[in-house]
């Protein structure tokens, strides 16, 4: 048995991360040469996080749906609009308690996900049809709630939970020092975890990367984290929404990779009949994936209305495409059973950099959509061809 991955395998495993870094450098060169500023400007890094927070949240849930067998949820954008409309009605129009309103919105998203999950998992209506119906249904309900109007502004007591920065001080030196210290702590924790995880896997006889590769990855990612936190410190500090994103990403990464229910998602996507014969309740797994997607759509809605400071009828338009595209670009298989939360997040960041970079360069919005479509198609084509190559060999 091999106990170490070769350099070629390691590069292949991290190919999307390499592409992301190359894309960021390309945009930096193009933006700098055109005199339009810098992709790595402190304010732009903060904007990248806030602008693409919804993509990260939705991609984390969409991956679970895709893992079950290449299934997708087309209704997430409409659910975002509906929950946002509900939040605007409760918080702005009716002046309800903010915490009660947030809980009601989250439960509404969960109920919508459970409703769609029931038809998909237990009645076995195809996910594409069920969520397509949901896309029309929930958008219609959102329009009825809003009556075609936009609700704004949201009170500061609500938006501070998603739009503020830490530490909450005007002293630039304190903001920079605290933010950098947080970055250093994150790097130390990550470095310890990476080395401990490698040691544990090697002790159990699992395939691992060469130590030099692990150390190189830790150093490079630590440098990237320190640079990002330094830039955030030069702006306003750590965005509160970044903490929420970290909790979601870490939580779902642990769930999918280290828990039995998480592994059931992969088993079902690999071969549903075999998983069922092995004792996996595939109906419950499918139901959970879509109920969870509804819940995360509600979270994305709460973040979205805080960022835009309004609940609009057009909110959430094409959000499902960004989430699906992020998963496929990040390495999720169109057939299910393959993909990671980390890969989906890299895909989400890639989509965000693509949008932000092209916007700074002044590229027409229609061309931006065309480029994103080509990128998503290329990712799926690469996956399909890779599968055929493996089968033929």
UniProtKB/TrEMBL annotation:
<feature type="transmembrane region" description="Helical">
    <location>
        <begin position="285"/>
        <end position="308"/>
    </location>
</feature>
<dbReference type="Pfam" id="PF02653">
    <property type="entry name" value="BPD_transp_2"/>
</dbReference>
<keyword id="KW-0762">Sugar transport</keyword>
<feature type="transmembrane region" description="Helical">
    <location>
        <begin position="208"/>
        <end position="232"/>
    </location>
</feature>
<feature type="transmembrane region" description="Helical">
    <location>
        <begin position="328"/>
        <end position="354"/>
    </location>
</feature>
<keyword id="KW-0812">Transmembrane</keyword>
<keyword id="KW-1133">Transmembrane helix</keyword>
<feature type="transmembrane region" description="Helical">
    <location>
        <begin position="135"/>
        <end position="154"/>
    </location>
</feature>
<feature type="transmembrane region" description="Helical">
    <location>
        <begin position="238"/>
        <end position="255"/>
    </location>
</feature>
<feature type="transmembrane region" description="Helical">
    <location>
        <begin position="48"/>
        <end position="67"/>
    </location>
</feature>
<protein>
    <recommendedName>
        <fullName>Xylose transport system permease protein XylH</fullName>
    </recommendedName>
</protein>
<dbReference type="GO" id="GO:0022857">
    <property type="term" value="F:transmembrane transporter activity"/>
</dbReference>
<keyword id="KW-0997">Cell inner membrane</keyword>
<dbReference type="GO" id="GO:0005886">
    <property type="term" value="C:plasma membrane"/>
</dbReference>
<keyword id="KW-0472">Membrane</keyword>
<keyword id="KW-0813">Transport</keyword>
<comment type="function">
    <text>Part of the binding-protein-dependent transport system for D-xylose. Probably responsible for the translocation of the substrate across the membrane.</text>
</comment>
<feature type="transmembrane region" description="Helical">
    <location>
        <begin position="74"/>
        <end position="92"/>
    </location>
</feature>
<feature type="transmembrane region" description="Helical">
    <location>
        <begin position="174"/>
        <end position="196"/>
    </location>
</feature>
<keyword id="KW-1003">Cell membrane</keyword>
<dbReference type="InterPro" id="IPR001851">
    <property type="entry name" value="ABC_transp_permease"/>
</dbReference>
<feature type="transmembrane region" description="Helical">
    <location>
        <begin position="98"/>
        <end position="123"/>
    </location>
</feature>
